[in-house]
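Request: When convenient, would you put together a sequence paired with its structure tokens?
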Amino acid sequence: MIRAHKFLMRPTVRQGQALGEMLRDHCSLYNGALQERRDAYRHASKTGIQYGMQSAQLKDIRAFDPERQGRWSFSSQQATLRRLDKAFTAFFRRIKTGDKPGYPRFRGAGRFDTVDFPKNGDGCRWDCAPHDPVTRVRLQGVGHVKVHQHRTVVGTVKTVSVKREGKRWYVVLTAEQAQPEPLPATGSVVGIDLGIANFLADSHGKFVPNPRHGHKAAAKLEAAQQALARSKRRSKRRRKAVERVGALHRKVRRQRLDHAHKTALDLVRRHEVITHEDLKIRNMSKAPAPKPDPETPGSFLPNGASAKAGLNRSIADAGWGVFLQILTDKAESAGREVIAVDPRNTSRQCPECGHTSAENRPTQEKFHCVSCGHTAHADTVGALNVLRAGLVRRQAQQA
């Protein structure tokens, strides 16, 4: 199996400058290849240029500009061209499926933050000697950069990527390793119900509170964004304001990931089978369609967009999608089973008599069955129904 590791790099001043130049030159290569594709489509009878044709030109480009392009790894430049080719492949796929196309755009110097090395040892080398207490990564044109390795990399390192986040530099590794030993059996099964008031409720009646990291940082973010809007373009003050906004967003993201990892790890350690709702998060967070006023052409009726925007922010702040992906990955490594079930009527069906009705849930938290009178917390009832549906699906798959 393939596992990814992300470590903080600690470059010197000169190495930091070289890393910035590496990103700048790869960005220039990306934009030049994009311009060539645009020109070929416009002037050459709409015949396209493929990755192989642009990759064959790299040798001449490196010879023509040895100071900017010749100093970097050839394979990393191929990876940058392949990245552009993937963008065009996705563009044409969206056209065929009828989605919003999203033509590949030119990248500014501040919007190109990653350089990939497809093979460890080709333009880069992960240097982690057992007798050396300091871990380093060697990058062509940069040198040996110190890395803060906070955990052991198990297996064979396959690819290396260098990523910039604000003023920090990270190295991202992918390592191929054997399937780890599964965790000891516990004999426990659980259903979970994700929500806003509580991040998670399980079928055993336990709740995980919603940390609301984005909501807590909203005041600081608002002040930082206002300062950014008031600053003059291309000024030193604006650069500092941009860094401040980015730092706040990255902090919220790290807090959200930390909470998701800890919650998922606790579930995986305690339960063998975990069932959850197969949520369509993108559809749930869509803005409501406008309602034209039939009596007044050009005007619209209230459609609840303001309230829906607040709900959408809460859904994004909870980070359900990230949590479910982390839960699935950890369960796979631990030998656990994760089952997604249809979310329809999970909070409206009575777990005692099976009666399904919208009146069974009079409030957000309370569940009261109008048929048998069963009363419980609505999120716990939803988790119970999710667990039962998951076990039924599991038995059907095993049969």
Remarks:
- The two ends are 28 Å apart (CA to CA).
- The longest strand covers residues 156-165.
- The mean pLDDT is 93.
- The longest helix spans residues 236-270.
